[in-house]
Amino acid sequence: MGLGPSLRVAVVVSGRGSNLRALHEKAAQYEYLVAGVVSNNPAAPAVDYASRQGLPVCVVDHRAYATRALFEDALASALDRLNPDVIALAGFLRVLGADFVRRYQGRLLNIHPSLLPAFPGLDTHRRALEAGARVHGATVHLVTDALDGGPIIAQAGLPVGPAEDVPALAARVLALEHELYPYVLGCWARGEVAVR
Ligand code: GRF
After folding, report:
1. Which domains are assigned to the chain?
2. Can you tell me which atom of ligand 1 is nearest the CA of 173?
């Protein structure tokens, strides 16, 4: 009999939490553990979900801190209490400073709704359609202090339909995200991701 999953993943959220849900639901299948959830937004549906699932959840409300550095110190303390091997940003809407990023360098991941380096930043689905992109998708990457610019770990793509609109494309990419992020953490748990 095995000892159960040993890779501890902390998930950092701000909003809806559909990626959190996918990460949590697929944890057993991919053999990692969601150690807990940290949110900057007390009203995030993701916080609700985590509580209902009995996951450890901590709110660090950025509005309660005078500076970004103070907020990020509190965020780091909350994360460190979860003793995570990996920190997975999943719809976290604050930009993180260089000190925070350096502190967790090599184990801080993000999921982004485009095939990076195409379409960093916001509103990716609309921009992809306007650019006439034939393929679109999602990327899991290491976080560095370049916005959406860290090393890419894995991507999932799909063909853009001829008459596709933003909501339809967004929904199809989101479904891909829900496969990709747990898959990547499974690879990480099996030791298949090397960070040099
Ligand atoms: C996802 O599209 C993710 O790629 C981006 O923010 C969105 C979060 O959605 N970073 P959810 O909160 O996981 O539902």
Report:
1. 8-189 (3.40.50.170)
2. 2
